[in-house]
Amino acid sequence: MSEVDAGEVRAEVDKFRASITTVREEIGKAIVGNREVVDGVLTCLLAGGHALLEGVPGLGKTMLVRALAEVMSLQFSRVQFTPDLMPADILGTTVIDDKKEGGKAFYFRKGPVFTNIMLADEINRATPKTQSALLEAMGEHRVSIANVTHTLEEPFVVLATQNPLEMEGTYPLPEAQLDRFLFKLNVPFPNRDELHAILDLTTGEAKARPTPVLDQKTILEMQQLVRRVPVARHVQDYAIRVVQATHPDGPDAPALCKQFGRVGASPRGAQSVLLAAKIRALFEGRFAASVDDVRAVAHPALRHRILLNFEGEAEGVKTDQVIDAVIKDIAEGKPGLADKSAKKGGATVGVA
Known about the structure:
This protein has 352 residues and is an alpha/beta fold. It has helices spanning 3-27, 35-47, 61-72, 88-91, 128-131, 135-140, 175-178, 192-203, 216-228, 233-244, 255-260, 267-283, 291-302, 310-315, 319-331, 337-343, and strands at residues 51-54, 76-80, 92-98, 104-110, 117-121, 142-145, 148-151, 157-162, 183-186, 261-263, 307-308. It has a domain at 230-347: Magnesium chelatase subunit I, C-Terminal domain (Helicase, Ruva Protein, domain 3, Orthogonal Bundle). It contains 16 helices and 11 strands. Strand 3 (92-98) and strand 4 (104-110) form a beta hairpin.
């Protein structure tokens, strides 16, 4: 890379980081704390992915999504998921209407999915049939209705909230839909200082509202910059090894995964880890993803893609514990697949 190119990249990275800092500050006018959750939602938007926010009611999940839409100057729609919600209520439907010149004609009336940021509020309170209506939109950013395909405008991101499954009136999300979320973010209960700040913010005089600081064009440019971030081969290999080790029947799976795991992360999980690692590098002002970036994003990118067996669920094992075991095993230098192939005469790939 020439000095001119390096200077241009440095300027782009600095601009990216400054924009994210400003966005955080504006969101902070409406949301107290939860820095990891805010950064996770921003990561999903910049990666062109989707986020699943889980937490008990009243933690500000819906408010966070609204604040993000205000700061980004993007189109926003909200759908309250309920047991009687139908797929057409989300995607839209074809209706018969009168033509100006007389007679009848079919028209497609767009649903709330035709937006930039869609808030799927309490998504696990709808039936699996309705939940699955989002599969094509989330996976391919398009919607097919009556043999006609409609492309969604970019950026498009679904930010879904869900209550813990043990709460009354919830349905588990299908595995195929879970896999389409880039991140699953656990929204924690605030500590005492944060609760004081929340009460000061919400029970006092009129509070400041977030102001728009980015527009659609800028966000698309930031998404393009993310794709250009280079990843060294050994960093990519490390991400692959982490994903492969989540499979209980794999040779590198830790004992905890072999005992309690049922299904490991898919290739889409590896894509999520690598994209998120690139964005974390940009957040910190670097134009190259590292192994530390992969470790930092492994939990939100993989926790919803690892399914536990009956024994694991009965014992109360968390998928985060499985990911901890995977990262610990690889960090301790246990031989990965790349090392084994090298010993057999394959190409040598550096590992972290």
